[in-house]
Amino acid sequence: MAFSEKSEFSPCLSMGRHPLVQLSGLPWVALESREINLLHVVLVASVHERVAAEKNIASLPCDVYDTDQLTLVLWFRHGSNVPIYIYDARAGVMSESHRPSESIRGRARFLPHQKPPVLQIQEVSVRDEASYICRVDFQRQPTRYTKVNLTIIEPPGRPIIWDGNKKVSDGTLVGPFPEGGDLRLKCTVDTGRPRPTLVWYRNGVTIDTYCEKSPDYRVFNELTLSSLERKDLNTRLECIASNSNLTVDEISSVRIDLYLKPANISLEGADQPFKSGMNSTVRCRVFGSRPAASVYWTLAGKSLSNHSEQSDASGNITESILSFWPEVSDDQEFLTCYAENPHVESSRLTVARKISVHYPPEVRILFGKTLNASNIKVGDDVYFECDMKANPDTLKITWSHNGETMTGDRERGIIVTGGTLILQSVTRGHAGFYQCHAQNVHGHGHSSELELSVKYPPECHPDQRWTYGATLGEVVYVLCQVKADPPPTRYRWAFNTSTSPPLVIAKGKEETLTYIPKSHLELGSVLCWAENSVGSQGSPCTYTLQEAGPPDPPRDCRFPNGSSSSGPQFVECEPGLDGGLSQSFLLQVFDLDTGNQVYNASSPVPRFDLTELPEGISYSAILSAFNQKGRSEDVRLDARTAKLLEHAPPEESEKKEEGWPMTQFLVVLASLAGIFIVGSICAVVRVRRTRKARTKSTAKTNDEEGSVEKPGESLHLLSLPQGRGTENEDEDEEEGVLRAPDIITHDRTRENFGGVMTSNATEYAPMIQRVRSPPMNKVNSHHRFHDSPGLGVGWVRSQPPGGVVRPGEVKDLSVGMVIVGMVF
Fold first, then answer.
1. What would the pLDDT profile of 395-406 be if each residue is shown by its tens digit?
2. I need a labelling partner for 112 at 20 to 30 A (CA). Which of 129, 484, 585, 749 fits?
3. Could you tell me the sign of the dihedral formed by the alpha carbons of 294, 295, 298, 303, in that order?
4. CA distance 241 to 158
5. pLDDT tier at 12 (50, 70, 90 boundaries)?
C-alpha cells in the first residue's frame, strides 16, 4: 500500500492542539468608569490566558495577595463597566458578600481563599468566551487589576466518510475494491472551534494527516491507497477529528472489502493415460479467489463445456470437474484449466498438461514414394508402405491381398519387412486389393483397400462368341473381345489357311472386323491379335465362320418344379446351337381341352414364367428357337396344374403310377409290326400310282386327302430324326416331365404342334400315337384321313432344306411315303 504525497505544510498540524500559554501584552489598560465618569489609566499587574472546553468549568485567576487587607473584588467582562461578579469583604469574613450577575448566576463562584483565588464558571459555552478583568481593592494599597483571556473550545463533530458521492455508515464495509486497484475515501467534519484536525489511521497506525479547509468552513481529508493487496481485506480505516486536549476526539471507521484474484491452481487426474472414446474425468482446484473463481477448460485449443463447479462457503476454494471423451487426435495435446475473477483485471491463472491418449492403431496403406502406381506393368517391382498411428506402439503388422492373409515368401517374390511389403516381378495374379493390418494392446486397425492394377498385354476374353454364321455375299461382323490393361490400341486380323501362314486381312484400331465371304473357301477360321502399350497379344483369338442357318431346337426342356402344390411355375430349356447367329426363343401354350392359345411370349433366353396360368387345366407348351435364317423345330411339353391332378379319377392316377401292363406292351409291339408291313406294301403301290398321275394336280389331291375322324380321337403322324429313335421318351420320363394320364409321351424335340418338321423323306420313320385330339377348328393340323373303320392314310411331304411344311402345302408327292396306321 502506498500513500499519496502531500505538502509538508499541513494546516491540520498548524492548528495543533491548544495548550495554555502565557501571552505578554501591554501592562496598561484604560478603564472607563461610569460612576465617576472619568477615564482612569490603571496598571495591570498580570494577564492570564485560560482555555475551557464547552460545558466544562472555566477557572479565572485573580491576583489578590498583598500585605494589605482585601476589601473588594470586582469582575468585569471586557467592553462592559458593569461587574459580572462582586465579592465584598468589608464587613468581615463572616459577612462576605457574593453577588454574581444575571448572566452567570447559578454557575459562577469566586473562591478568594484558593491559591490563587479564582472565579469558577461552570457549563461554559461559546458565549462565555471573552477577556475578563479582576479589580481588587485594599485598605491602604492602590487598586490592582488582573486580565484573563478565556477561550472556549467547541468539540469537533463526528467525521463523515465518503466513497465517491456515497456516504458510508460508520463501521460498515467499503468497496469491494479489486485487488491491485486503488482506494479513494474522503473524511469531512462540519463543527468544532477551533477547526478540528482530521487524521486517517489503519489498524491504529497513522497513515494520513493532511487535511484541507473548504470555503464553507468544512474540514476534509482525502485518503488514497494504491495497489491494494490481499492483506488489506477487512482492514479497519479510522478517521479521527480533534481540536484540543480538553475535548474528546470523534472517530468514524470503515472496513475494506476486496475482490481477490485466484492465488493458486492445480490439476488432478491428467497425468494418467486416457483411452480413446471412453469417458474420462479431470479435476481443477482453484484457491484464494473472492468471490469464487470462474473456471474454463480447453483441449488442443478447443473449448470444453461439459464441466461443473462447486465452492466452499467462503468461496476461497473452487473445484471444477471436467467430463470428456478424448479422441485419437487429442493425443499429445494440452489439456488446460483457466481460472479467473471477472471483477479483477489480469487475474487469470492457468494450469496445463500434455495428455496421452491410448487407442488402437490407425492405419493407412500407401504405394512407395518413388513408385508410379498408375503405370505398373507385368515384371515390375512394387512396394507398399503401412503408415500407422498407435498409442502404445504397434505390436504386430500383417498384410492381406483380396482378403487373404499374406506371408513372406522370397521364392515367390513376396518380402515383408515391418511396415513395408515388397512384390518382385509382379504378374497379373498380383493385381487386386491390398490392406495393411496392425495390432496393439487396445485392438486392431485396418487400412482401407488399395487397388494394385498391373498392366498387361491383351489376352482373349474367355466369355465371348467364338462361332459366327455367315451368308455368302453378306456382311458379317466379328467382334474381337480381349482383356487388357490398358485397353488395346490396335488390332490385326488374319484368315487361317491349312497350306500357308495366316493371311492378314485387316489392321486398325477397331475391335470389330467387317467381313464379306464370297465363296465357301472364305469360310473358316479368322484370327485376331490385339496390341496395347505393354505389348502385343501372344496367342491370337480364333473365331469360326460357318454358313448361317436356322438354330437347333432347345434342349432338355422341363418344368423344374414338377407337380408342385401351386402347379408349373415356369418352363426352362438349354439353348441349342444358334446356327451361327443370335437366336431368341418362342413359347406358345395351348389349353388341351379347348385348343385355345393361352400364352405367347418370346425371350432371348429359354426360360418363361407360367405363374399366371389358371389352375386345374391340361396344357401343351410348344417351344422353338429362331434367328435371322429361320425357326427351329418345335419342342412340346404337356402338363397339368396341381388342382387337376388332385381331382383326377383314382383309376386314372393308378394307371399313371403303374405304367403299361405287359399285355398292352405286347399288343402295341405286334400292332407296330403289322403297321410296318402293311404300310410298306401300301407305299409301293402308291408310288407306282403317283408316277402315272404326275400330270394331275397335287393340290387337289392333298385337299381331298384327310384324316379318319373318330369322335374324341385322331391319329397324329410324327417324324423323328434319324438316329434318335425314341430315346427322348426315356429322358423325359427321367426328368419327371408332367404328363396327363391319357397322353402317351413321344419325342418332344422334333414335334411341331400343328405341323411336321422334317429334313428329307428318307431320314425319318413313321410313328403312330394315340392322343386326345383338340378341336380341328383350333389346331392347325394338316393331316387329313378318310373315314375308315380302323385305318387311316395320310401324306407327309418331305421338308425342303431350311423350310417348314405349311398346312395344305403338298407340292411333290413323288417323294412322299404312305403311312398306314391302325387305330386301337
1. 899 999 999 999
2. 129
3. negative
4. 7
5. low
